Amino acid sequence: MIGVFDSGVGGLTVVKEIKKILPDAPIIYFGDTARLPYGNKSQETIQKFSSEIAEFLKKKGCRTIVIACNSASALAADYLREIYPDLKIYDVVSSGAEAAVEATKNKKIGVIGTTATINSSVYKKKISELDPEIEVFTKACPLFVHLVEENWIKRPETRKIARTYLRELKLNKIDTLLLGCTHYPLLEKIISGVMGRRTKVIASGEKLAKELEKTDLETGFPSEDEYFVSDLTPHFEKLAGKILGKRVKILKIEI
Amino acid sequence: MIGVFDSGVGGLTVVKEIKKILPDAPIIYFGDTARLPYGNKSQETIQKFSSEIAEFLKKKGCRTIVIACNSASALAADYLREIYPDLKIYDVVSSGAEAAVEATKNKKIGVIGTTATINSSVYKKKISELDPEIEVFTKACPLFVHLVEENWIKRPETRKIARTYLRELKLNKIDTLLLGCTHYPLLEKIISGVMGRRTKVIASGEKLAKELEKTDLETGFPSEDEYFVSDLTPHFEKLAGKILGKRVKILKIEI
User: Which of A168, A203, B115, B131 is the residue whose CA sits 20 to 30 A from A219?
Assistant: First the structure.
C-alpha cells in the first residue's frame, strides 16, 4: 500500500501521476482539510501534523509514504525519515528538484510555491546539491492555492495575479519553472501562457511516480484505493472529482 | 475578563473597536492560527474547534466571550450558548445584523463574507427577524481573506477582484453593505471605492463594543491583555501589529 498525504486536495494531482504509471498500486490518501493550508504555518506545527498523519497511514498498512505537499516535504520530510526509519518516504521536493535539474539547459531554474516552502530555501539547497552551477530564482505565490480552491483557473483576475507574481522570474531568463506546490498544476495553462514558450513548466508528480516505479512495491494487493480527509465539504468532493477525472468515495475521519 | 476568539488575526479588528469604547477592560485573545481558516470548513468541525477554545478561555477566567469570527458566529454561536449557559456569549453576526438594520434607509442590505458564513444564510435569517421587509443580498468573497493575509490591501489586483465580487450587489442598489468577515475592515477603502458614495460600508466590531459597554462587566481587574495563538509565524506578528497599531506579546499554546 502506498500512503499519500497532503494538507488538502492538491496532493491528488500527484495521485493522478502515480496512477498513470502504476495503475494497480493501491493507494490510501489522506487530506488534512480540517487544518489546511500548511503553507503559512510554522515548522513545528507542520512536523506535528505530518507525524500524526504518517502514524495513521502506517496503521492502515502503508510501508511507503508519499508526502504530496510541498510545505510538509520542505519542513517535515527529514523529520519523518528520522522517526520512521522503517518506512520508505518519498517527497515532492526531492523529486521536483531532480526533474528541474534534468530539464534545464541554461542552468537557470525558477521555483514557485507557498510562503513556507519558499522561505525554507529547500529547493535552492536540493538543486545546489545536485548541480552547484545552477542558479535558482524563487518566488512565493500564496494566492495561487486560493485561486485554485475558488476554481478561478481560467479567469482574467488569475492571469493578472500570475503576471504580477511571475514578472521577476521572467526577467531572470529562466528556461525551467518548477511548480513547487501541488495545487499549481491546475494553473499550468495560465502560468505557461505568462512565462512564454521558451520556459518549460514542470511539476514533480510525474518524476515521483517514475521513482516509485523503480522500487519493489508490494504487489498483488486486491485492495481498492481509499480516500480520507479530516473535514469534508461538498466543495472538496467537487474539486477532487475535477482533479482525478472521476468521482471517488471520500470518508471523513479524526486522526 | 473578556475572552475574544477568531480563527486567526482578523478578530483583532474587533478587539480594536472594544478597546476604543472600553479601554480598561482586560482582554484575553485566542487566534486559532494552526487551523485557520474556518471559512471553508464544515459546521461540525467549526463547532468542535470553537468549544475547545471556549473551554480554554473559561479556564483562563473569562465569563464573557466574544466570537470575533463570522464563520464561528454563524455556525457555532448557538451551540456554545447551549453548552455554556453560565457564560455571556456575544457574536459578530448578531451585532453586525443589528448595525446594518439600523443603517439602511431603502431596506436593501448587502452582506459579504466567507463561503461558510454566506452558505449558512445566518445574516438573512437574523436581519429578517429584526425587520422582515428588508431585502438581503449576499455574496461570498473567499479571496478577500487571503488578499489581506498577503497584505495586498491597496493593490490593483485586489481592486479588480473586488469589482468582480461586488458587481451584482451594486446592481441590486443596496444602500448598506455589511462586512461579514473580520478581515474585511482592512479592505474598507477598496470596497467603499468600488461601491461608491451612496453605499454605507459597515463592520460589526463597533456595534458589538457598544453592546458590551451596556452590560455589567466585572471591573477593577489589574490584569494586562493577553494574546494567544495555536501557531506563531513572524507574518502573524506583523499583521497583528498592523491591525492593533502597536506591537503586542503573543504566546503560542496548545489547547
Answer: A203
